[in-house]
Amino acid sequence: MNEPNGQDAQDGIAGMEITRSVAGTDVTLKVTSQTRSYLGTGLHVHASMAGGNSVTLVDPATTPANASRQQVEALFERVHLCACRTCGQPAFDPNYHDTNRAGQCERCFLRDLRAQLDAGQQAEKERFAKLDAEHKAKGFTHRVDAHIHPVGGGSDRAVSFYVQNASDAEIRRELKRQGSASPDDFKTVAL
């Protein structure tokens, strides 16, 4: 266990880290600074195992200010593991934990996520290759890929459009016309 120190020592659990075996797998409970950021929603403790799988355990009846080591340790009773649905390695059981891993270990989850990302990027590359060819046949010389940063804030959005030998100044004017507060966030792709 890491001992609490300084200002954070007043709650008695700051910096606490405890590792135990759960169903034959080492699981570490850790009290972090984020634990304190959920005021009014109970005690939140980070649970993790080797390989990167992690979840947050919550004790709604206990606040960080009045939590004891025993209450943190009691959260081990809420840890439920299952075999990864892909490779059989330990994973947090999605029937008990709020997780987007769907019963997969971190390695398998990230491998599948990478495959989805690669497939999406390939589809996007093919889509732009087709659009680029169509616009080049119509006389356009460049594709502009940009991010519109709305004046006054809000969510940025990606845009692409085609131009004929446009200068950077002309592209900036177009991005301003589309409402971008930062019209320098673009790149041009020669067709």
TrEMBL record:
<protein>
    <submittedName>
        <fullName>Uncharacterized protein</fullName>
    </submittedName>
</protein>
